[in-house]
């Protein structure tokens, strides 16, 4: 079940379209060139989570691509229409905490050749059941070289490395490569050996220290200037973890930091926190610590908005 709502000046709350009927021109540059941007967020009990962070990142992506997308009000109205229509057409079953969840995708393309205006829409769908499995059972991950060094984002902004563009064919190819090797997911590294991100996730790691004094819990993520997407989940979790007494740290990180960690996660808005069981076959921490820290941080993330 997919609900589509197009942003359309003639329809202030958005125009609902039948997802089973073609709705884009074949000349739309989102299709012919992958030229466009998107956001994926979770609506919980009808309310979109971290919506300002997602709209802020959408605006930043639009600026990187010089794309003139509709303003926040139009997106918020279309999101409300899509989530409401999805809930009436296909009420989601409550999750283990009694909440109902809907995946909301915001998409804006450069529009048809020559039209000069973007095509923008919101899509509402169900949460894939595999994600709860990943949270519960964890992931086998492989490291893959992304082929760029960690300073390329500043040197070559036209690579759009920090923008959430529709050109995800490379990310999907990396995931297929991992699946063909029997792994579940990927952590990209730069050509100069820094840890970056997953194809659809940010990387977090925890280091626990207990050297006789008060135990220290440190949550670390790769530096945001290394050509990675600034994750809204990582951002929200860092704020919540800091308030709960965690120390925060930012890379540069190398693969040895991951292998030494007490726990590593791939995090994103729909998957939330999925613990990494192993990287290139080496176990990360212990099952007991991974499960305990995943539960602690998942509870913190659930309190964020
Ligand atoms: C490349 C990449 N990095 C990080 C993320 C995590 O971002 P967020 O936490 O905002 O969902 C995503 C999400 O899809 C992504 O595609």
From TrEMBL:
Pfam annotation, one family: Aminotran_4
Q: Sorted alphabetically, which InterPro entries does this protein's record hold?
A: Aminotrans_IV, Aminotransferase-like, BCAT-like_C, BCAT-like_N, Class-IV_PLP-Dep_Aminotrnsfr
Keyword Calcium in annotation: no
Q: Which UniProt keywords apply?
A: Lyase
Query: What molecular function does GO assign, one term?
Result: 4-amino-4-deoxychorismate lyase activity
Example GO biological process: carboxylic acid biosynthetic process
- Which EC number(s) are documented for this chain? 4.1.3.38
Q: What class of enzyme is it?
A: lyase
Tree of life domain: Bacteria
**PANTHER family per the record?**
AMINO-ACID AMINOTRANSFERASE, AMINODEOXYCHORISMATE LYASE
Q: What is this protein called?
A: Aminodeoxychorismate lyase
């Amino acid at each position: 079940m997919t609900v589509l709502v197009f942003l359309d000046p003639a329809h202030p709350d958005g125009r609902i379209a039948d997802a089973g009927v073609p709705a884009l021109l074949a000349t739309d540059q989102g299709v012919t060139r992958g030229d466009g941007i998107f956001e994926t967020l979770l609506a919980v009990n009808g309310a979109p989570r971290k919506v300002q962070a997602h709209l802020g990142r959408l605006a930043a992506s639009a600026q990187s691509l010089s794309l003139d997308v509709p303003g926040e009000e139009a997106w918020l109205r279309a999101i409300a229409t899509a989530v409401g229509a999805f809930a009436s057409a296909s009420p989601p079953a409550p999750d283990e905490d009694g909440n109902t969840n809907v995946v909301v995708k915001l998409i804006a393309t450069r529009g048809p050749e020559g039209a000069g205006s973007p095509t923008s829409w919101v899509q509402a769908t169900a949460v894939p059941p595999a994600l709860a499995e990943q949270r519960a059972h964890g992931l086998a991950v492989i490291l893959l070289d992304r082929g760029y060094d960690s300073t390329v984002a500043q040197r070559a902004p036209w690579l759009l490395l920090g923008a959430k563009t529709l050109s995800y064919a490379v990310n999907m190819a990396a995931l297929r490569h991992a699946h063909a090797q029997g792994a579940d997911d990927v952590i990209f590294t730069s050509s100069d050996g820094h840890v970056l991100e997953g194809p659809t996730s940010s990387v977090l790691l925890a280091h626990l220290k207990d050297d006789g004094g008060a135990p220290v819990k440190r949550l670390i993520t790769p530096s945001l200037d290394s050509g990675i997407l600034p994750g809204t989940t990582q951002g929200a979790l860092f704020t919540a973890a800091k308030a709960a007494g965690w120390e925060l740290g930012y890379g540069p990180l190398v693969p040895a930091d991951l292998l030494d960690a007490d726990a590593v996660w791939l995090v994103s808005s729909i998957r939330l926190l999925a613990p990494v069981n192993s990287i290139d076959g080496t176990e990360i921490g212990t099952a007991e610590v991974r499960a305990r820290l995943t539960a602690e941080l998942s509870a913190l993330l659930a309190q964020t908005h």
